[in-house]
Specification:
The complex is a heterodimer of chains A (about 625) and B (about 375). Chain A is an alpha+beta fold. Helices cover about 35% and strands about 20% of the residues of chain A. Helix content of chain B is about 70%, strand content about 5%. A three-stranded antiparallel beta sheet of chain B has the order 1-2-3, covered by helices on one side. In chain B, about 50% of the residues are buried. The chains are: A alpha+beta (about 625), B mainly alpha (about 375). Chains A and B meet through α1, α2, α3, β1 and α7 of A and α8, α11, α12, α13 and α14 of B.
Chain lengths: ~625, ~375
């Protein structure tokens, strides 16, 4: 007690009391100053500032960045940017949206034009987000709106960059499309890097490379008058354009492939077997990604998403088909490598293979007679492979199929790839709770039954055979470049694995596939070229596997939906292959007659261009300084 | 410790209720900032803030139970811990918006610079209590306190966090003024400080220079903090006398206001509740601060007096600078509004600080054992 009092008393308590008074006074005065200031702002200037808040006289506006360009391997532009002029209406600036809408409609009607959207009814809310009345208006409409700006309070024309998909339908499945970010995506966006109204990639490379393509938003502070017209720009932070992407895709081959396939449903994948680079990738039917610019209309979306032929799906990587006779590569490779057959092993084909009381037919109903491995591949004899498949067994077949990369994702740099299916005994047991039947082994020996592969897997498997045994990761993006052309990221060829086949057996099989195209009686004989030797394999995948329908199929009364899928896989030249192609034409009939001609066009075009040094590919749009910098600023 | 019934009878319910009432207003206000439709990200912020209030109250309870004289014995230990935490921040801290201020512990973001505000007060109180002299201090006698302050100020400037560094200086200057300094020394200190201004200008980051320039001329940077000031003034002013109504502030809901949950939280309140609401809140703060000063005045010993005076000054300066900034009277520096701004570190530290005030207050009649 004494000690404590001593402390305080020692320091003259009156001193503290005096200072407390000073602090009391100073604190009170300073806080009172704040209240005075509030009075000044809220009461004296209240009306003026309320007016300003209602006019939103100063607005911070986000400037959308230009997305990066997409270029093909020869630097031709596949995706560019273009300005879109949208009529916007900012409701709380004008007293009556209906009046303004009526005026706008009248003005347009005077020139025989009309507004594509209805004016939204005025809701009783304090504030509204701006309403987009019409996107991407014509120059004529733009002129009318600009000329009558003072009569149209609240109506503004906003210039926004949109995508210009130069390739349209042809490259739709590679490029994908963009759209406004959806609420679900926003919720997932943990880092807060997006906000409402941002444009993001929704599919294809636009989605896969969104983080590189999107760029960075800028901002602009604009002063607007009571009518909502901009008076001046007070400050601006420039947006940063996205990175440019260079693909391995060759527009020339892409166009040839698209033109050859576009009347059918199906897919074509062209690959460089030497490094897994995709030269062309086509899926048909397709869609026009330009429809999505600035938001797709409901009808157009309905048309696309509910279309029974699924134009939005990328069949090249997500279309799962029975491989048909193209699967004989796997069966032959397994049998040779396991030592179950030699190239000289032969079986007699009389048109059918009996197992139990069931006959499995050869496509050649009169039979091929006695054939060895080489001729069995050349003529695609089914009975030979029924015999071989039975020797190998389902699980060994699956092991080799996986060794060739079938039944698993290839890892291609595109979203939504599917894995296909390679059945095993165990799989069937767990999937259906039933034991594997020998008859099912017979079916999968010619690529029917449960077997499902995607076109990209097929071309990758044959590419591995062509390049001497290496499975590459298929890759469509070569590099990502900064605006000044410096390389941000380059994607090098990536060796995933080796096929489990000896060099000797690879040579035996390659020679057999050479025979398919180059020997009399070969199912791919129509691809025979004078200059380069093509190797290939036809396939015909039954959509309905019931033998009873064979007769019906012959009578061609089956509806198109149940007709066979035609497949063709090839690579060329025989020595040192540099191009590999997989073609699948849905419900088109036989591989040799329906799919091979598509491959033929691509092979011809590829070698014609290569052989004539003068002839250059037709550029879609030449890359020049202008398109590098974007069409406009 | 034997329970003394006087502790209960002398408990300062007014202070506790005042703090709870202001925190509750803050909670309502944060709910409003997260209310608008497109603002899905902040919609649960008020729940987090409520959690922080509860955590703060628990810690406050613990602080009340321990005699502040006992706490004071460990003043330098707390000070050392907070300096170590600041060092940890500068080495491993989490960086956002270009400044490294946070330590992440198990998903929680903690800001040691908030804690330093409190430990520096306790440390200075301890120092002046131990080195009591019977006249005003001379400059050279303030050498040790000078270093106690300098270390955290430099570490915080390095983050960089101009506002918090300024805050520490203001708290310390207040305490030194209060403890008594020779007028001559005071002038010399101010002169030295004045000479430091050009030097510190060179040390400031570009964005900090911009902010000060912006305060002098808001139109020079309309996109950055100038925009903040303009929009904040519009928000406050447009509230008028009666305000636009709860959840109906257009500036707020249209997201014209930046960082509206933290530094600009008062403009949200002023827009929606008008001059009437704003003035009532201001008066609550005035009462709170004067009440706290009264606690300091009536405390039983120098240690208690300095702790409660320091804490009071912490609350006062934060209120004054934050609201002054929101009303466009002071430059934009990142200082939260006590009990209203969203932020766990600030809330918890302020609750502990309130605990210290309650602690000093309820033991004012209890003598040393």
């Amino acid at each position: 007690m004494e000690e404590m009092n001593g402390q305080l008393n020692g320091h003259e308590p009156g001193e503290f009391r005096k200072r407390f008074k000073i602090v009391f006074a100073v604190v009170s005065i300073m806080l009172f100053l704040l209240i005075m200031r509030m009075w000044h702002l809220q009461v004296v200037r209240g009306d003026e500032l309320r007016q300003r808040s209602e006019n939103n006289s100063v607005r911070l506006r986000k400037i959308k960045p230009l997305r990066g360009l997409v270029l093909d391997t020869n630097r031709q532009v596949l995706v560019d940017n273009q300005p879109s002029f949208d009529i916007m209406f900012v409701p709380n600036r004008a007293k009556n949206i209906n009046d303004v809408g009526y005026k706008l409609k009248n003005l347009l009607a005077a020139r025989d034009l009309e507004l594509s959207t209805d004016i939204p009814p005025l809701e009783k809310r304090r504030w509204f987000p701006p309403v987009k009345l019409e996107k991407n208006i014509s120059m004529e409409k733009l002129a009318i709106v600009e000329a009558h700006a003072s009569d149209l309070p609240g109506v503004t024309v906003e210039v926004v960059p949109t995508r210009k998909y130069v390739g349209g339908e042809m490259t739709a499945h590679i490029i994908g499309y963009t759209g406004e970010i959806g609420p679900e995506e926003l919720k997932k966006d943990a880092y807060g890097s997006f906000s409402v109204g941002d444009i993001v990639g929704k599919d294809g490379l636009e989605k896969y490379l969104d983080q590189y393509l999107k760029g960075k938003s800028g901002a602009e502070q604009v002063e607007v008058n009571v009518l909502g017209k901009e008076v001046k720009v007070i400050g601006k932070i420039e947006p940063v354009s996205g990175y440019n992407v260079v693909l391995s895709v060759d527009s020339f081959l892409q166009k040839i492939a698209w033109d050859a396939l576009k009347d059918k449903a199906g897919s074509v994948v062209v690959m460089d077997p030497r490094d897994g680079a995709i030269l062309a990738l086509v899926s048909s039917p397709s869609f026009d990604p330009n429809l999505f610019n600035g938001g797709i209309s409901f009808e157009a979306w309905d048309n696309l998403s509910n279309n029974p032929s699924h134009p939005m799906g990328n069949r090249a990587i997500s279309g799962q088909y029975p491989p048909g006779s193209t699967y004989k590569l796997i069966v032959a490779a397994a049998a040779l490598e396991e030592g179950l057959i030699t190239p000289d092993t032969s079986f007699n084909c009389n048109g059918a293979f009996e197992l139990g009381n069931r006959a499995y037919k050869c496509w050649q109903k009169h039979g091929h007679g006695r054939v060895n491995l080489h001729r069995a591949i050349v003529e695609s004899c089914d009975v030979y492979f029924y015999n071989v498949g039975k020797l190998v067994g389902v699980d060994k077949l699956a092991e080799y199929a996986r060794g060739f990369g079938l039944g698993q994702l290839t890892g291609i740099d595109l979203p939504r790839e599917k894995s296909g299916l390679i059945p095993t005994k165990e799989w069937k047991q767990s999937r259906f709770g039933e034991a594997w039947q020998m008859g099912e082994t017979i079916s999968i020996s010619i690529g029917q039954g449960f077997d499902l592969v995607t076109p990209i897997q097929l071309v990758n498997a044959y590419s591995a055979l062509a390049n001497g045994g290496t499975i590459y990761k298929p890759r469509i993006v070569k590099r990502i470049e900064m605006a000044d052309g410096r390389v941000l990221k380059a994607f090098e060829p990536e060796q995933k694995s080796r096929i489990p086949i000896s060099k000797k057996n690879i040579d035996i099989l390659s020679y057999a596939f050479w025979g398919v195209v180059n020997e009399k009686g070969g199912t791919g004989y129509m691809l025979k070229r004078k200059e380069e030797d093509v190797c290939g394999k036809t396939g015909t995948a039954q959509v309905v596997g019931l033998p009873d329908e064979d007769k019906a199929r012959k009578r061609k009364i089956l509806s198109a939906k149940f007709r066979d899928h035609a497949l063709f896989v090839c690579f060329a030249p025989y020595k040192n292959p540099e191009i590999a192609i997989a073609v699948i034409a849905e419900n088109a009939g036989h591989g040799g007659s329906a799919a091979a001609p598509v491959a033929r066009k691509i092979i011809d075009a590829y070698f014609e261009r290569k052989n004539s040094e003068n002839k250059k590919s037709q550029p879609l749009v030449a890359v020049n300084q202008k398109s590098q910098a974007g069409v406009y600023r | 410790m034997k329970f003394d019934r006087r502790l209960f009878f002398n408990f300062d319910w007014t202070l506790l209720l005042l703090v709870l009432a202001i925190s509750f207003i803050g909670l309502l206000n944060i709910y409003s900032t997260g209310y608008s439709l497109d603002n899905y990200r902040q919609e649960t912020l008020y729940i987090k803030q409520a959690q922080w209030i509860i955590i703060g109250l628990i810690l406050m309870g613990i602080v009340i139970c321990i005699d502040y004289r006992f706490i004071s014995q460990f003043a330098y230990v707390f000070y050392a811990i907070s300096i170590i935490l600041l060092l940890v921040v500068s080495l491993y801290g989490y960086t956002t918006h270009g400044s490294q201020r946070w330590i992440v512990i198990g998903g929680f973001f903690f800001q040691p610079s908030e804690l330093v505000k409190l430990t520096i007060i306790i440390a200075l109180a301890k120092y002046f209590d131990d080195h009591m002299i019977e006249r005003s201090y001379k400059l050279r006698e303030l050498f040790v306190p000078f270093f106690i302050v300098l270390i955290p100020v430099l570490l915080i400037l390095k983050q960089p966090d101009l506002g918090t560094a300024l805050m520490l200086l203001l708290i310390v200057l207040s305490i030194i003024f209060f403890i008594g300094i020779k007028w001559r020394s005071l002038f010399m200190a101010i002169a030295c400080g004045g000479m430091l201004i050009p030097i510190s200008w060179l040390l400031l980051k570009d964005y900090q220079k911009e902010r000060i320039m912006t305060f002098l001329d808001p139109e020079s940077d309309p996109l950055g903090s100038g925009y903040h000031i303009i929009q904040s003034i519009i928000a406050v002013g447009s509230g008028g006398i009666f305000g636009k109504g709860y959840l109906k502030g257009t500036q707020t809901q249209l997201k014209f206001l930046p960082v509206q949950q933290t530094d600009f939280v008062f403009s949200v309140f002023a827009e929606e509740w008008g001059f009437l609401g704003g003035a009532i809140l201001m008066i609550m703060f005035v009462v709170l601060i004067l009440w706290c000063l009264k606690i300091a005045l009536h405390s039983r010993d120098l240690s208690g007096m300095l702790i409660s005076f320091g804490v009071t000054m912490l609350i006062f300066w934060e209120v004054f600078i934050n609201i002054g900034m929101v009303l466009g009277m002071l430059p934009v520096v990142g200082i939260p509004l006590p009990f209203l701004s969203y932020g766990g570190s600030s809330m918890v530290v302020l609750m502990i600080a309130t605990g210290l005030l309650l602690n000093v207050s309820m033991r004012r009649f209890i003598l040393h054992p």
